[in-house]
Write a structure and sequence with these properties.
Blueprint (H helix, E strand, L loop, with lengths): L1 E9 L8 E6 L7 H11 L3 E6 L8 E6 L4 E2 L3 H16 L5 E10 L2 E10 L4 E6 L5 E2 L6 H7 L15 E4 L3 E6 L3 H6 L4 H8 L7 E5 L9 E7 L4 E4 L3 H15 L4 E9 L7 E10 L2 E20 L1
Parallel strand pairs: 2-3, 4-6, 11-12, 13-15
Antiparallel strand pairs: 1-2, 1-17, 3-4, 4-5, 6-7, 7-8, 8-17, 9-10, 10-11, 12-13, 13-14, 15-16, 16-17
Helix pairs in contact: 3-5
Length: 303
Amino acid sequence: MGRRYAILDVFTNKALAGNPLAVVLDAEGLSDQQMQAIAGEFNLSETVFVLPPENPGHSANIRIFTPGRELPFAGHPTVGTAILMAMERFGDIEGEQDAMVVLKEKIGPVRCGVVLKENAAGFAEFDLPKLPAPAGPTENRDIIAAALGLEPTDIGFENHCPTCYEAGVPFVFVPVNGLDALTRAEPVPALWKKAFKESCSTSAFVYCRETKGHDSGFQARMFAPEMGIIEDPATGSAVAAFAGAIHYYDELPNGTHFIRIEQGFVMGRPSLIDLGIDVEARKLHAVRIGGQATLVARGELYL
C-alpha cells in the first residue's frame, strides 16, 4: 500500500530555504519502530506522521520524530503540518482562504490559524500549549564556550547569560556577542557531553542581538548532535522557549511584543520565525509562533 507524503520548506516563502519537513499523511497502522525508521530514511530534522483524530473537534493526531527520537512538540512541524492540512482540505484556491487546524500532539491540542493565498506560501500561527518556564541550571560559560569552539569572551552580551528554558522541549540558551561569534560557533563532539551533562538539555540555541534584517530582533543557530541534528535551520520549539529568556533578560513591559528571529542563515537555509509575546502584570500571559511554508514535493512510501 502506498502511503502519501509531502515535503515542505518551513519558515520561508520560497523553496530550498527554511527548514525542510516530511509529513506522512497516511500513517495509520505504522508501529513506533517503523515511524522512527522512516524518520531516519528522510533524515530531516523532523518527520510528522498524521493519524486520524480521536476527538472529532480535532483535525488530526500527529507524532513527531527526529532521526534519533520522538518529540512531544515542535514548532516547524506544527506550522508545516497545519498549512498542509489546510491545503488538503481546500485544494486549489482563488484569492485567500482562512482555516483553523487543531493538531493533537503529545503535549496536547495545538490550535493553529492558517491563511492560504493563491500562488503564495501559506502562513500558520499557533498559541503555545505550554508557557515557557526555567528548566534547570547550566554549566559555566568557559565549558560551554569550549564545546562550541569559542572563547569565553564570546559568550554573553548586555545582561544575557547562558540559561535553560523549556516550553515542551528544553534548550540551553547561549548568548554570544555578535554575528562573528555566531558564525564561528561549531559543536566540538569530544566536549559536548561534558559541557551539557549537568544542564537541562544537550540542545544548544546560540543567539545574538546582531541581525541581517532591519526588522529582526535576534539571529540564532541551534545545535542538537545528541538528537541526530548537527544543526537545525529553524527551531520553533526553541524559539517558543526563548520567549522566557527574552522576557526575563529584556524585562518586557506589559503589552504585546512582536519579535522576528533569524535562523539558518549560516547554513544557507535562511529562515524567519515570528514570535508574539503577551505580557500582563509583568508576567508572560501568552506566546505565539508563526511562519510561512511552501510545498516542494509529494510522493508515496511503499511499505
